[in-house]
Amino acid sequence: MRLTVKTLAATTAITLGLAASAQAQTIRLAHVDPDEWTGSKKGAAAQIFKNIVEGETDMTVELFPAGALGNEDELVGQAQDGTLQMALVSGAMSKACPAAGVLDIPYTFSSAPVAWEVLDGEFGDALAEHCLEETGLRTLAYGETGFRNFTNSEREITSPADMEGLKFRVQPIPLYIEMVEALGGEPTPIAWTELPNALSTGVVDGQENPVGVIYNNGLHQLQQYMTLDGHVYAADFFVMSDEFFQSLEPAQQEVVQKAADVASTMGRAIQQWNTAEGVKLVQEEGMQVYSPTADEIQAFADAAQPAVIEYLRGELGEQAEWIDRLQEAVSAASEG
């Protein structure tokens, strides 16, 4: 009898051990930003996500920053095919889920708090559900890449008329080409890695990016003027393979969701810090920075929005309702 009891106890211990091992999961999380958290919103978000998940579950989070596993388009694909469990991406999401492109309609968000209210509310939830159906990726939370602003080496820009004749580097995304054309500039799609040389050699006169990106990559040293028009608010998408998420225990899912919520808040805070600090630093290093008035911003919006919205309606087809849903959500958030 003693041998039987001991055998049963040993068998039970092995079984429990195997079950615990089976429940242990590894989350491979990748992004294209630097890992250093004080200057990188995705880097900060990824690290705090890792700390919370590993501190409150038996799961392990492996981080792959700085494009170690590829560009954003590749990371989205890897999350879809299960090579990755999670990715932090921005612009690439609209390629996988076209409806997400409505967030890039220029001059949609008047401030970051308005954007946060929209993304963290009913509209953001609905967009996340739609993109889940389209891609198989669950948007756990929305972070922030920041407001994009124009810089150039020729003159101060206070109105669309000042952009006429200037060549601006843009991402190879049709929406950005439409926007710059509508504002009177000459859009020139150029890869990010080629931008410094294009500015140095005069291939383009200017470019557009968030302030932190401009400063941290030394673009302010190649440009004389910056206009804080905030034409596009760029959001980060915290996406996870839904197949992987559904494989987790409810308690694990709860921690993962909480960690993503905290991480998105952390990323937003770091981005806000980088913007405020970046504006001060570029000015200290000789860049002329102009902040348009509300009326001037409206003039930019009046010039850019119609062309971009018309383009998007054509691209989205039956999904063009997302344009109207976003505008309604922004209007409600702005009034609140």
From TrEMBL:
Signal peptide location in the record? 1-24
Which Gene Ontology terms cover its molecular function?
A: carbohydrate binding
Report whether Iron shows up as a keyword of the record: no
One Gene Ontology cellular component: outer membrane-bounded periplasmic space
Name where it's found: Periplasm
Location, primary (coarse class): periplasm
Concerning Pfam families, the annotation shows:
DctP
* The entry's keywords: Periplasm, Signal
Name the InterPro entries on file: DctP_fam (IPR018389), TRAP_DctP (IPR004682), TRAP_DctP_sf (IPR038404)
The answer to whether UniProt assigns keyword Signal to this entry is yes
Question: For this chain's UniProt record, which GO biological process terms are given?
Answer: transmembrane transport
Protein's UniProt name: TRAP dicarboxylate transporter subunit DctP
